[in-house]
Specification:
By secondary structure, the protein is α+β, with helices and mostly antiparallel strands. Helices cover 32% and strands 27% of the residues. It has a four-stranded antiparallel β-sheet, with no helix packed on it. The protein is rod-shaped, with a radius of gyration of 42 Å.
């Protein structure tokens, strides 16, 4: 049955209304714009690809597994604010960690850190290294004047040294003279202690326990051991060698 003009107009209006609700398919952002079905199918395929990349949310190791957004928010809350990092670089966690990795921690612990922190003190005491040294510090050729001072410092990675035994060997050729050898230790609080031994002939002087105790001080560390000697005459041809052993901390 043929449509009259009124029916035809009504039908055309209905179709136009539907088209208006649908919109212009050329405005679709999908690749396929031929019709809505093709566009929807294209989106469905893309969503499936994204879903496969996201993975199954039930396998998340976060407490929250309802969605990836909730899981990411949980991680973000646990990580905290990057601005709270105490590193110089606060742009990302990776950069902050790399900054710490590049820093050589060796020597950064101060004596105050060690003294004030029992855990650090215990760990440092657990790390020891024996040393055995022979130090030559001859008298000056000038009357009653010390020769070159020779220092013993802790080796790399250690902050202090503990001498356990010290022998002073007076050698060379003695005239009518008295040779004095000084052993000085410098403590972590910048104070010092010195013990002197003298000789008028070739021989070895071993420091006694009381001598070693005179080079100790409660509550501090020895940072340096220094040796020097002098003679009571000019142009002395004597020699002074200090043999000592102990351990580094």
């Amino acid at each position: 049955m043929a449509l009259n003009r009124i029916q035809k107009a009504m039908l055309e209006q209905i179709v136009q209304d539907e088209l208006n609700r649908i919109g212009n398919t050329s405005s679709l952002t999908t690749t396929n714009k031929t019709n809505l079905v093709s566009a929807v199918n294209e989106n469905k395929s893309s969503i499936g690809t994204v879903d496969s990349k996201v993975g199954n949310i039930t396998t998340l190791t976060t407490v929250a597994k309802t969605s990836t957004v909730v899981a990411l928010n949980e991680l973000d809350g646990e990580i905290g604010a990057l601005s709270s990092l105490t590193t110089t670089d606060k742009s990302t966690l990776v950069n902050a960690i790399n900054e710490l990795d590049s820093v050589k921690l060796e020597g950064l612990l101060t004596d105050a850190n060690i003294a004030n922190n029992a855990a650090i003190k215990a760990s440092k005491l657990a790390i020891q290294k024996l040393y055995k040294k022979s130090t030559v510090a001859n008298p000056s050729t000038t009357l009653d004047t010390y020769g070159t001072v020779v220092d013993l410092l802790p080796t790399t990675g250690y902050t202090s040294l503990i001498p356990l035994g010290i022998d002073i060997v007076f050698g060379g050729t003695f005239g009518v003279e008295t040779v004095t050898a000084d052993i000085t230790v410098t403590f972590s609080d910048a104070t010092t202690a010195t013990i002197s031994k003298t000789a008028t002939a070739i021989g070895t002087v071993s420091l006694s326990n009381s001598d070693i105790m005179a080079l100790a001080k409660d509550g501090v560390y020895i940072n340096k051991l220094s040796v020097k000697s002098k003679s009571s005459i000019a142009t002395s041809t004597t020699s002074v060698t200090t043999n000592h052993y102990g351990f580094y901390l």
